[in-house]
């Protein structure tokens, strides 16, 4: 049964994959040991470094982002190692659960999920760790479940101020290619990424950007690893090959996506996301609703989670939006289940797609009988117009 | 240079071709004389009848819609024949020019372009034609240059009331598959259609739906014709073949498009277009601008032409919209050049795409410094919500 | 019902469209009056000149090749004009029929269809035409129904030797992009082309390359024309636009196809076709069958028509090949119906595709019980190996 | 730089992905938690069972086949567990190395790689294992490095005859969807599969078909696992969802591929592969070369490895084939490096593609100066014709 027009995929990832990437993926698979493959994979392996802003190797796994979380840990740590995790939200929790599952001893700094990481708490904890038992600090750059961003550069400074040798691992799954991120400059040891958000691809590739220190750690790390092992990857990648069959067609898409991000210019990509996030928050405020993230310095640029008014079901609202307006919004996860909805405004996106999205939210609020003030969309237009809102309003 | 997000192609055709149609077109070309082709072309030839609401043959030309205009005339008329044309706008004028060029004597009922056909004027003229020198009445169902719709059923009645034997030819290029149209029931003799608007396809196919009376006329018509000749087409089509190489890949797309229109249901397709047109007009009114069509009974459902305020350039406005908001709007044609812009809201389209479109217009008006009241988009939301606008507005 | 593997589309056109072209066609349709279109169409309009080897304008019609035949005549001639046509086969006959249909007086030089044009006969006829009543000489460069090629440069010389002012019109539908062709150097006035053969595209575009003399003729030519009219095309094309909606998506494909032909190099494209034709003829000879073209100087490089042994049905053979081996071969047309089959070896094609094709013929001959010697495929391998056949044969 | 015609991807996987699968993959990514996804993934999860011939759950990982090897082991075994592996070739060796790496104690039954598993050796070893220390027997159904097939049903019987409780794990990466395989009937506990061979997809999905016994084993197995864990997969799959983001677009392709295999009929698919393998071996024999597998009962149906004559480089031969004939052949792996080349004849493949492939081998042997007798291709045609070779040979 055909539904007219384009679906608005406004979950915070997977995002709306551009046609140019889909068409690239749609080309015939080639021999992953032949010269044409090597040419293509060289472009992918080199090009992706620019997106992470690193000169180090970036490992590309044929897997979901979840795999890259696991890879970050198993390559650098040993059974029983302590890791310091910061529970900024659902995905930070999942990473913590994974760490436990594979035999690490994660220690969690709790939070109310409504802001990003407080670097001072990390610094404090590390200072207390005189014996340097903590081997890694794990934080999520952009918490996809809450729309809060953490200041990674300040986390780095906190570790340094504490004089602590811990590795720094950062999940950038929903920030990479959408929000400013600098693997080398910010001194990150392992950056975890995925293909299906700001990187414009369907799901199926994940990434580890790594530092010399992380590579050094991998030499003595004794957690069991095979599929996720960096060493064979790094050495095979030197000749543009992979130790096992790569996801060739997604690599075609990766090459196309990198080209597109570079054509637009990464800094332009980032400012576009910031602008769309600001317009979205203006709409939320105008509707009389509440942005879930309550620390303005930590607002995400790639998604906005919105608190549903007491007594109203976020999931019922989302269902009505999907049925009536052919738009998918993100749901509330675990403790936020049915309490928030999330608007993804990341990836291959522009002003008018955002206005369609926000209009769908406003129409959905009406359809679902959620109390709100009209005009969120107009508030967003004011932000997008960027003209102060004054001059053009009066016709008479 | 990549521009992020999807382009909004909101000219009144070609329209946003759905992925399913593009992917169908993207399959390998096959032997146009083989059995697989015959199966496919049968579906196209039979299925397209349902779109025209006819049981008669529908001719499919590998050409632009302009070719189907020519085909309608050369198959049914002879050099020097009089035809009565009704100048509802630019495209009616072009059809008239074509008729002159190929040796007919068109007689034109003029108009101010701001409404559709007045059937009384046709009846009056035909009644005066005692000698039945007028061989055909040619009208445009939906004038793409103005956004005015003509009442074809009433034109038929006018011809009948006049007791005149003239053929009735109707251009449905921008109405077919978007607005209610009934070739058989309305007694049309030749209906002219194109692929690139409500029919969801790229340009490259055109159509003639024909009546028994038109076929009879073709037996004695003496205008020169070869490529456009119906007779070889009709007989070849009987065995699902074509007299010369057809545009095979566009036929794949036609089969897919017909399926999609039928899945949604033609009546649903029409009411969707009417609703989007109403929302668009509400926006225009709220902006304090003027819909070019000044006869509410003749409002088009597939596009809305908007008058630019005196002293402002419609083309400059459109240029700013394209540059800043990645949306193409239709320009004013011939006498309307630079005076109107046209919003296409037809084809594979939905509420949120419309809201993106109208937001783009509102943003563009601001960017171009065109005086207007804000809030056209909100007015459109009221129409789309369909809830009377009252209940959901108050949050406090 | 899925048939495994790729279909072998070995009719002499439409040909196997390469993925790169199909994917280009599969991109969203854009505004044919906007700047992105102008950029793209500029590439098409300029690039296609190189394929015709002309510096003059090349007109691109949204139509089948049949339309370009008509366009060549109606733009340059007047009712009752005499044209000299050379019946090299079925398609030359069809062009002749078209000429009659539109009011010209074609005069035909007959042939047994088994060779290309004999320029001497043209010279002789033109010399006899003292009054210069013949306004155009029309020949088919590569007769798709027979696999015979005509020497266009010699036809030009024949016209010049006769001191005759006639225009020269050449159909290159199945030679363009496959066999050496030089519009300017050979002094052709109108070259007729189509998209679906050596030009690697699906059907739906046709071409007229024109000379100054042809343009001059068009100023006084009085045959009725509208859709096919050059003048509006040429002037619109100067600003990269078209007078009516072009087949935008096929133009995307044209740009891709031109790039591909230039990447391979036109001369390499031509020698590849010559080599494949030689290998095919070697196979036919080895099977003990007869190539229909009986003048070795006129062998086509893009297809080979093969005479079926007396008492055997070519169509039954082709049917068995299609059913059993998933390959489409070309049928015999009009007087050759059921008597020949045609092997297309043109377009996006390579040695192993040719060997699959010839193997399919050999398997089909067996399956259909057509008497033949085995080993045609081996003879083709000898040609393709290009090593004289000697060295590698002996293993012991 | 464009190379004309289709590349012949005749490595033993990835295989030539059919257009219908590529186009399916090329559709926009959707919300992996929404109802449209659930409908689609239900088809994939249910449909894939038919391909494995099981009624049990089949786990679908977003990973390469290598991941599914790891998953089979980590879900069912504990550190230090003994597993009996049978080194049929390179890939069996890799599985063995993986088992060691993750902390198992594999015991290997060696072989000369030139045949499949000898079930008697397994029975013998298991009988000797009175203490039932061996927890799993791991065999490769079709060894991709050698072209030898192992009799899985006989391995099952061997285990049963030995009265041994060991699990049976089978790698079907290069046999699934190409060669008869029956997970349930043959009593396999874990079947390992991949997407990129007989399953017609690009690489990026892998599979574990599992038995009740395997599930039971997973309850007490203590090897570390997270990404590969079955339990969350099985429970999420019950509602058509996945515990982490799945490779959505490849799942679209999986649904299409399953439909295609079922349309052709799995038994027809298998007999097609057997027939092509027989034709390939006939060619190899006719060339005077040696099929690497020396046990006719163990010939693979999906690929044929060919021994290069002493003193000739298989890799140099393959390089010449790629450069001159645009075909990729498989290389010799580890101990077979440079000694064999492998012809993949699996996946979406047909008679004429096979003939193109074998012609490319014959042409390559000539080009590389490898001593051989001509006519391998003719021998293959004899097999494909299936007519005994007699009737059609004589023309005179």
Explain how this protein is built.
4 copies of one chain form a homotetramer. With 396 residues, chain A is of the alpha/beta class. In chain A, 41% of the residues lie in helices and 15% in strands. In chain A, the strands form 3 sheets. The first copy, chain A, has a 7-stranded mixed sheet, with helices on both faces. Chain A has a 5-stranded mixed sheet with strand order 1-13-14-12-11, sandwiched between helices. In chain A, strand 3, helix 4 (90-101) and strand 4 (105-109) form a beta-alpha-beta unit. The longest helix of chain A is centred in the C-terminal third of the chain and has 22 residues, at 266-287. The radius of gyration of chain A is 21 Å and the shape is globular. The model of chain A is unreliable at 390-396 (pLDDT under 50). At the A-D interface, helix 1, helix 3 and helix 9 of A face helix 1, helix 3 and helix 9 of D.
Q: Choose one word for the global shape of chain A.
A: globular
Mean pLDDT of chain A: 96
Distance between the termini of chain A: 47 Å
Low-confidence stretches of chain A: 390-396
Residues in β-strands, percent of chain A: 15-25%
The percent range for helix content of chain A is 40-55%
Number of helices of chain A: 13
Oligomer: homotetramer
Task: Write out the strand line-up for the largest beta sheet of chain A, numbering strands in chain order.
Answer: 2-10-9-8-5-3-4
- The helix/strand class of chain A is alpha/beta
How many β-strands of chain A, per DSSP? 14
């Amino acid at each position: 049964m055909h539904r007219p027009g384009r679906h608005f995929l406004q979950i915070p990832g997977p995002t709306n994959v551009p046609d140019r990437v889909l068409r690239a993926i749609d080309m015939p698979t080639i021999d992953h040991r032949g010269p044409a493959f090597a040419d293509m994979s060289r472009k992918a392996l080199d090009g992706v470094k620019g997106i992470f802003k690193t000169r180090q190797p970036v490992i590309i796994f044929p897997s979901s982002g979840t795999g890259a979380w696991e890879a970050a840990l198993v390559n650098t740590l040993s059974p029983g190692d302590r890791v310091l995790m910061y529970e900024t939200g659902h995905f930070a929790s999942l990473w913590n659960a994974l760490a436990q599952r594979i035999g690490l001893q994660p220690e969690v700094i709790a939070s109310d999920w409504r802001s990003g990481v407080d670097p001072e708490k990390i610094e404090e904890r590390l200072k207390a760790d005189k014996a340097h038992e903590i081997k890694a600090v794990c934080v999520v750059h952009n918490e996809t479940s809450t729309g809060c961003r953490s200041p990674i550069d300040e986390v780095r400074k906190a570790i340094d101020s504490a004089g602590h040798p811990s590795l720094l691992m950062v999940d950038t799954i929903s920030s990479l290619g959408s929000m400013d991120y600098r693997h080398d400059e910010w001194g990150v040891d392992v950056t975890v990424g995925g293909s299906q958000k700001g990187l414009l691809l369907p799901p199926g590739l994940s990434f580890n950007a790594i530092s010399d220190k992380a590579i050094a750690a991998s030499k003595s790390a004794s957690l069991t690893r095979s599929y996720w092992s960096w060493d064979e990857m790094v050495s095979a990648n030197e000749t543009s090959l992979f130790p096992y069959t790569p996801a060739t067609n997604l690599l075609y898409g990766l090459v196309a996506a990198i080209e597109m991000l570079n054509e637009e210019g990464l800094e332009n990509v980032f400012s576009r996301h910031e602008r769309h996030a600001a317009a979205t928050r203006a709409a939320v405020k105008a509707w009389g609703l509440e942005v879930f993230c309550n620390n303005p310095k930590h607002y995400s640029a790639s998604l906005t989670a919105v608190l549903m008014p007491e007594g109203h079901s976020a999931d019922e609202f989302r269902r009505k939006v999907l049925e009536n307006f052919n738009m998918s919004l993100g749901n509330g996860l675990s403790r936020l289940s049915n309490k928030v909805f999330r608007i993804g405004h990341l990836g291959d996106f522009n002003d008018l797609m955002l206005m369609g999205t926000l209009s769908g939210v406003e129409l959905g609020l009406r359809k679902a009988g959620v109390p709100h003030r009209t005009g969120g969309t107009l508030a967003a237009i004011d932000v997008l117009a960027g003209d102060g809102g004054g001059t053009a309003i009066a016709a008479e």
